[in-house]
Design a protein that fits this description.
3-stranded mixed beta sheet
Length: 129
Amino acid sequence: MNNEKKMLKEKIMKYMKKWGSTLFDDLENTIPELKDDKISENIHDLSFYPYVNIKIWAMSKIGSAVLSELINEKKIELVSISYIVAFLGYTATGTNNEVMNLPIAKQIQRFYKDPHWLPCKVQLKNYNS
């Protein structure tokens, strides 16, 4: 693993151990390397694999890769939240991620023809809020 990814993983885990659970914008505001930098080759949607048209968040390519690794290592997990909770949380901070403009995914295990947004939070694996 390259040094940049290792340092990013450490930052994410330090933040997650402090807070336990968070919305994506809070994580991005603390760790700017996760932000979608609007350079097309670096924009990467974190998707709900294998349901590639279920989008979680648009972020930097390295951010998406590191979060995916932490999920696969079972250190963190994505937990779906209601649209209202997500909308209130994100609008309170002025966040306007491109995935928020997509239709809401109402069924997780469905192959949508077009992209849909699944509002989620990030939390430590086995975290009890």
